[in-house]
């Protein structure tokens, strides 16, 4: 069914490739081009060391003319230079490889898996990464007799704080290949026990461990080994009745001290576990699993041996978060899986399809400023801040710190007012001079003036100095400037005057 679906749904895309590439071969459940072995999970696999996959290329205008695009439809946008995918409602762009320095170089941040090798391995933290998602497990213990298996290893999940560029050392625990005097599991296990899996900072020293997943205890001759993992691992099972009684299973590793070895009625106990190592089991007894603290070895009762304890898991406080312990889940060798947790990227508008610049369109709602709102009424000019910091209301080019093109009301019951500045000259002798104001005189609220006389600026009606008296008032369409005789006004004759009128809406 999968093969028929792939051939029909992909015919338009792959038909030309199959005709042009004799090496293309149909496989059960998939199609291969340049390969005779298609990955089982792939419907189509293209393999080449010198060529790439070329999707349809078109500019943005042509892309937007595609009728009823299907979700998943992919093209190369020649306008923006990135791949575009239709998600069912809009075109979405894949980020280009020209990512700003210090962000995400391509092919660097994929999850990495480490399997058992029997030797330390290393991982270098990519640039820009400060958190790793970790999933790891210790190895299970081996069977030490025909009836009972060793304990399963523990699983540990956590987030680890890291420094970009630092090198972590990885120890993946191995399952033992023998029991009793046979080989122990790699990384801290005793005979028959499973090795711990750990991550170390600053090299390979045991003191550098930041995360540990405990291994399972080795099985005794007739007794199961304890499960590894958790902050307190499981103890091994005791033996049946032997000479003088049964033998005790080794204790599971914990967080603060060695795990006790299993007891023995004939003085043949198991050895205690220690920091990072499991204790050896006595004759027929399973060894302790490796861990933060290894499990104790199983004792011997003269006929059969008891199971070894599992090793404990550990997460260094201050360097780890979201820690989850799952004891006794892993059979066989351990593993480590690391996945970088990337910070939110700095968005680059050049990689966003259909992006409209701010300011080139009309807002569809008011700007909410907490208690207050900035509300527009559709006028041609609203609130403007110039490049010099001047603020204009109704003005396209404010020339003062605050410029209002219109009437101003200072208070709910105050009139809406404007001001008007005029220039005039006092009469050259006793008499009147007229300055047209162009306003409705019924709306004028006040008029005042100031005359320039040498270094002095004289308001109307000033009498403390002789010879500078003049008056100002409104008469119909004019501002009237009036002087008296030479004694009272002689010094003010012919002087320039600045006039200020305040009028209401």
From TrEMBL:
<keyword id="KW-0829">Tyrosine-protein kinase</keyword>
<keyword id="KW-1133">Transmembrane helix</keyword>
<keyword id="KW-0472">Membrane</keyword>
<dbReference type="GO" id="GO:0005886">
    <property type="term" value="C:plasma membrane"/>
</dbReference>
<feature type="domain" description="ALK/LTK-like glycine-rich">
    <location>
        <begin position="134"/>
        <end position="336"/>
    </location>
</feature>
<dbReference type="InterPro" id="IPR055163">
    <property type="entry name" value="ALK/LTK-like_GRD"/>
</dbReference>
<keyword id="KW-0675">Receptor</keyword>
<dbReference type="Pfam" id="PF12810">
    <property type="entry name" value="ALK_LTK_GRD"/>
</dbReference>
<dbReference type="GO" id="GO:0004714">
    <property type="term" value="F:transmembrane receptor protein tyrosine kinase activity"/>
</dbReference>
<keyword id="KW-0808">Transferase</keyword>
<dbReference type="GO" id="GO:0005524">
    <property type="term" value="F:ATP binding"/>
</dbReference>
<protein>
    <recommendedName>
        <fullName>receptor protein-tyrosine kinase</fullName>
        <ecNumber>2.7.10.1</ecNumber>
    </recommendedName>
</protein>
<keyword id="KW-0418">Kinase</keyword>
<keyword id="KW-1003">Cell membrane</keyword>
<keyword id="KW-0325">Glycoprotein</keyword>
<keyword id="KW-1015">Disulfide bond</keyword>
<feature type="compositionally biased region" description="Gly residues">
    <location>
        <begin position="246"/>
        <end position="260"/>
    </location>
</feature>
<keyword id="KW-0547">Nucleotide-binding</keyword>
<keyword id="KW-0812">Transmembrane</keyword>
<feature type="region of interest" description="Disordered">
    <location>
        <begin position="246"/>
        <end position="279"/>
    </location>
</feature>
<keyword id="KW-0732">Signal</keyword>
<feature type="signal peptide">
    <location>
        <begin position="1"/>
        <end position="26"/>
    </location>
</feature>
<keyword id="KW-0067">ATP-binding</keyword>
